[in-house]
Amino acid sequence: MSSFGRMFRISTFGESHCPGVGVVVDGVPPRMKLSAADIQGQLDRRRPGGNKLGTKRNEADQVQILSGIENGLTLGTPIGMLVNNKDQRPGDYGSMSQVPRPSHADYTYQSKYGIHAASGGGRSSARETIGRVAAGAIAEKYLSEQYGIEIVAWVSSVGNHATDNVNMDTISRTEVDGNDIRCPDLTAAEKMTAEVVAAREAKDSVGGIITCVCRNLPVGLGEPVFDRLEAKLAQAMLSLPATKGFEIGSGFAGTKMRGSQHNDPFVKKGANLGTSTNNSGGVQGGISNGEPVYFRVAFKPTATIGIEQKTVDFSGEETILEAKGRHDACVVPRAIPIVETMAALVIADLVMIQKMRN
User: Fold this and answer.
1) What angle, 0 to 180 degrees and rounded to 10, lies between the N-to-C axes of helices 36-46 and 332-355?
2) I need a surface site. Which of 75, 250, 253, 349 has the fewest CB within 10 A?
3) Which tens digit of pLDDT belongs to each residue from 232-243?
4) Helix or strand (DSSP H, E) at 266
5) 31 pLDDT exceeds 70?
6) Which residues pair with 157 in a beta bridge?
7) Residue closest to 333 by CA, chosen among 235, 192, 221
8) Can you tell me the distance from the alpha carbon of 160 to that of 164, in angstroms, rounded to the nearest whole number?
9) Strands 69-70, 287-288: parallel, antiparallel or unpaired by DSSP?
10) For the whole model, what pTM was predicted?
11) What letters, b where the CB count within 10 A reaches 16 and e where it falls short, cover 116-137?
12) How far is the CA of 351 from the CAs of 94, 220, 222, in angstroms?
């Protein structure tokens, strides 16, 4: 399915090399000030050609708002948005149309539907995430204005280089965007950048991890059992192209701790309760507890590489594939706004569900 959310609901459309991609957003409250400028910032951070480490495909990714707004105010009706594809080169994929690319969706799409987009990955391309980012930018604005919620993501590892030297209480997007790799630890950022450059020069690719923190969430977001906050975040993040792992709070490292170390004792914080530690990642029993919610998302190395690979075509005949086209040697820097906006979509939806109880 191409839809996500219950109360704040989005449906994305378009393929990587079709005329355009976009989204329809339902559930945006009426009388909210909104313009294309509120959305364009996150699209600019996501767009290809935006920094020297990314793909050479250069798209302006200018959003057009087609419906749902009048005189700068939302109407409460569905908001339709479109971004045109202008720098697509489907001809780059001509020689690969009969060869399922290793670790791509060509084979699975062909097997499922009996047809697949022969260029650029179609719906499985990260180009589809433009609609998510545009919709999530609206969710971010709503959450910021109504609740003061802040969502910031950064690159915490690339290949074998990682950092935990980031203050989640104060980290800002300005700090994150201070370098092309989008890691606020400058020492680690230099090593990560060198790793990406080396992979690109070798016509190869490298993966990494994005960490994200969501601050100022009210207590009570998330539904018991199946729609737990961490479960919805995991679904959102693992729906992104190239993702292979999700963990929240202490994550897998928590398995190495005793309960006496891992438990988060309650303390008085102002007029409310809080916790002295946050191994829970801001979520207990699937419901936000008022502490910062933080999680990590693992991205695999980009599947399209320039190195020749032995494989077979759709008929099973052995062949050599040398992929063409323009691709990222590492997707994690450009995935930062995608992670942030997907988190915003989850939180906005759960906020609206919780408001129904009030």
Assistant:
1) 140
2) 253
3) 999 999 999 999
4) strand 266-269
5) yes
6) 162, 209
7) 192
8) 13
9) unpaired
10) 0.93
11) bbbbbbbbbbbbbbbbbbbbbb
12) 46, 9, 8
